[in-house]
Amino acid sequence: MINKDLQYYKFCWYGFLKNLRFFDPFIILFFRSVGFSFLQIGLLFSIREIATGILEIPTGFFADSYGRKLSMILAFSSYIISFLIFYFLPGFGFYALAMILFACGEAFRSGTHKAMILDYLTIHDDLNMKVAYYGHTRGASKLGSAISALIAGLLVFFSEQYKIVFIASVIPYILGLLLMISYPDELNGEVSKIEKTSFLKSVVRNLRITVSNFITMFKNPMLLRAFFNSASFDGLFKSVKDYLQPILNSFALALPIFISLGEKRSTIIIAITYFLIYLISAYSSRQAQEFTLRFKSVTHAINGSYIIGVSAVIIAGVATNFDVRIIAIILFIVLYALQNLRRPMNVGFISENINAKIMATGLSVETQLKTIYIAILSPILGFFSDKFGVGIGLAITGCLVGMGYSFVKVAEKKK
Predict the structure, then answer these.
(1) Of residues 214, 225, 249, 233, the one with CA closest to residue 410
(2) How far is residue 340 from each of residues 5, 284, 291, 376, 379, measured CA to CA in Å?
(3) Which of 30, 205, 276, 328 is geometrically suited to a Cys-Cys bond with 319, CB 3.0 to 4.6 A?
(4) Which CATH superfamily is domain 218-415 in?
(5) What are the tens digits of pLDDT across the range 55-107?
(6) Which residues have CB under 8 Å from 221's CB, separation 6+?
């Protein structure tokens, strides 16, 4: 049974607060409202992903060298400054800077808090409860996402401006920052402060080891396919997922209800839709095992879900182009559910085909590949959306990823 002490509730509050990102359901509409093209939006997303990928290694060493608490404090500080720039300093250059600061937050936070939970359970001899513990904190995160969508809807509805979601996001992140400061020092990990030169040498050395492992893993065709299967699907998902917003916006304005509310109708529809999406995502992430059992094997489940997901993007694009937006919306919801179903399957499949000693490096390689996919696909999607419309942009992007299916199709391990 989980020991629900004060630190347990702090862990849960962290999960809840970090997901109060009020800007998530309106990010593309915000950028469009300030006059940005879809290509510019795609470039901003690319900047964020590339910066996150580059900063992963040095921030990981920083956490090991100067403590996980300080790393988490810097993560929340970076997020807060990013939100303030989005609110007070308009312009592509400032927004690019804000994206880089947001990436700093992501890099400092990545994996650090999970390590703190693991340390806490180890110190208190409760390591056998880690699955349940992570489950509870993940549940708090999903609740935060769902509530965030509704609060964001109310903020935009009453303020009649999108940028308010950024200044509002500062509040839960300040609370998150204070929460991190209150964490006990025992969760800092084994801190070994090092000189600046040693720190840089360690980063370079680790980078060389990572590249070496990267090359070794790429010599394994089965593992290579598994990495590209996971990374290409995740990259496609992260590139297209926010394009649900302009589709919902157009759909809401065409509805013959709440006409007196004018453009505010879209805010209501978007908030409710994202609330439902987050609830469905929370449910589907717990159904990965049941989903897998519906197929002959986990490889069939991975390949089948890949085809379904890519097809959903293409058909959603076609439906959007022909103004059948309700079909596109349903398919986007399916895509969100598939993303949550696939993640446990992919991690499980990779873990079965890789040496446990380099599992962490393997997942890091997968993350870097995903970053590359997003960095490439986001501007492509933006370019074609500007040129031919969002629907055609989605369809073309889906087709580009689908064309590579034969190269990412995973197979059973030969016995």
Answers:
(1) 225
(2) 30, 6, 11, 23, 25
(3) 328
(4) MFS general substrate transporter like domains (1.20.1250.20)
(5) 887 887 787 778 889 999 999 999 999 999 999 999 999 999 999 999 999 99
(6) none
Query: What amino acid is encoded at 232 in this protein?
Result: S
Q: What is d(CA 282, CA 341) in angstroms, rounded to the nearest whole number?
A: 10
Topology agreement, domain 1-193 and domain 218-415 = yes
Has residue 188 got a pLDDT over 70? yes
Q: Which CATH number is 1-193 given?
A: 1.20.1250.20
Tell whether the model's pLDDT for residue 277 goes beyond 60.
yes
379 — pLDDT class (breaks 50, 70, 90)? very high
- Write out pLDDT tens, residues 366-375: 888 899 999 9
Give the integer Cα–Cα distance in Å for 272 and 255. Answer: 15
User: Where do the domains of the chain lie?
Assistant: 1-193, 218-415
Asked whether the predicted pLDDT for residue 202 surpasses 70, the reply is no
3-state SS string for the chain: CCCCCHHHHHHHHHHHHHCCCCCHHHHHHHHHHCCCCHHHHHHHHHHHHHHHHHHHHHHHHHHHHHCHHHHHHHHHHHHHHHHHHHHHCCCHHHHHHHHHHHHHHHHHHCCHHHHHHHHHHHHCCCHHHHHHHHHHHHHHHHHHHHHHHHHHHHHHHHHCCCCHHHHHHHHHHHHHHHHHHHCCHHHHCCCCCCCHHHHHHHHHHHHHHHHHHHHHHCCCHHHHHHHHHHHHHHHHHHHHHHHHHHHHHHHHHHCCCCHHHCCHHHHHHHHHHHHHHHHHHHHHHCCHHHHHHCCCCHHHHHHHHHHHHHHHHHHHHHHHHCCCHHHHHHHHHHHHHHHHHHHHHHHHHHHHCCCHHHHHHHHHHHHHHHHHHHHHHHHHHHHHHHHHCHHHHHHHHHHHHHCCHHHHCCCCCCC
- The predicted-structure confidence for 311-337, as pLDDT tens digits, reads as follows 999 999 999 999 999 999 999 999 999
Q: How high is the mean pLDDT of the chain?
A: 88
CA atoms within 13 A on the CB side of 13: 18
pTM: 0.91
CA 246, 250, 253 angle in degrees (round to 5)? 135
